[in-house]
Amino acid sequence: MLEIIKYLIFGLIQGLTEPLPISSSGHLVVLRYVFNTNAFDDLTFEILLNFASFLAIFFLFRKDIFRLIISFFKYIFKKEERVKPQVKEDFKYAWLIVLGSVPAGVVGVLFKDVIESKLSNIKFLGIAFLITALLLYLVRKLNGNKKDKDLTFKDAIVIGLFQMIALIPGISRSGAVLVGCLIRKLDRDTALKYAFMLYLPVSIGSFVLSIPDLLEIDGTLALPYGIGFISSLVMTYFASL
To answer: Contact at 8 Å (CB) between 21 and 136?
Structure first.
């Protein structure tokens, strides 16, 4: 029962910290040390919790996401739709999400093992927390005027590089992306939306890459992993409202 409660707490902490500009992965590593558990000796369980957060955020942004997907394919396959301003803007925004996700995706694939084995120690984590706090402090008064339609491909690349840095445990992904957005003069609402949108492709990619590991999970872990997944899903939903 005690082990089940630990997995429940892991899920709750993941769900609570994912929408906030603090590192969810970093706080999970801290919990590993606090509980002295091997649940995070690899990234599989963390990715599972992260995917639960993805589902919750996807549900909250489902209208925007489905509109972007529909507009994207309309633009490609229906020439008469390309002249419509909304379709053109959505098509561009969809590509900006893809472009902003590339740096983190490439580095995550190439250096997953290094990140997992070398950077997940408690001392390095403390430094990373301080870096996140410092970055957020430095941009606390910034607030640009760029809206969704004003985003450029250069903006997406720069913000994507900030998201790439957040692969380091302890560096908040949402926090780093918000810093990049504010430096590129996005207004805060636009920055928050883009930060959530960039989260989706990275989360999907991480989950797909972890499927072989998930299929090899010991059957005895099905219940605790499931409890962690559900608690992360529910907590992310309410923390993101």
So the answer is: yes
Torsion angle of C-alpha atoms 167, 201, 150, 189, degrees rounded to 10: -70
**3-state class (DSSP) for residue 184:** coil
Cα 50 to the center of its chain, rounded Å: 8
Tokens of 128: 């990373």
Closest to 155 in 3D by CA, of 130, 185, 134, 133:
185
pTM for this model (two decimals): 0.89
Measured distance CA(181)–CA(148) in Å, rounded? 11
Do 89 and 112 meet the contact criterion of CB atoms below 8 Å apart? no
With a CB cutoff of 8 Å and minimum separation 6, the contacts of 51 are 203, 206, 207, 229
φ/ψ region of 22 (left if φ > 0, alpha if ψ in -120 to 50, else beta) reads: beta
Spatial CA neighbour of 22 closest among 241, 239, 226: 239
| Residue 137 structure tokens | 């402090």
* Per-residue tens of pLDDT for the chain, all 241 residues: 788 898 999 999 999 999 999 999 888 888 888 887 665 555 678 889 999 999 999 999 999 999 999 999 999 999 999 999 999 999 999 999 999 999 998 998 888 777 767 666 788 889 999 999 999 999 999 989 999 999 999 999 999 999 999 988 889 999 999 999 999 999 999 999 999 999 999 889 888 888 888 888 778 888 989 999 999 999 999 999 8
Strand partners, 186: 146
Neighbouring CB atoms inside 10 A of 115's CB total 17
Q: Is 154 exposed, middle or buried (0-12, 13-18, 19+ CB in 10 A)?
A: exposed
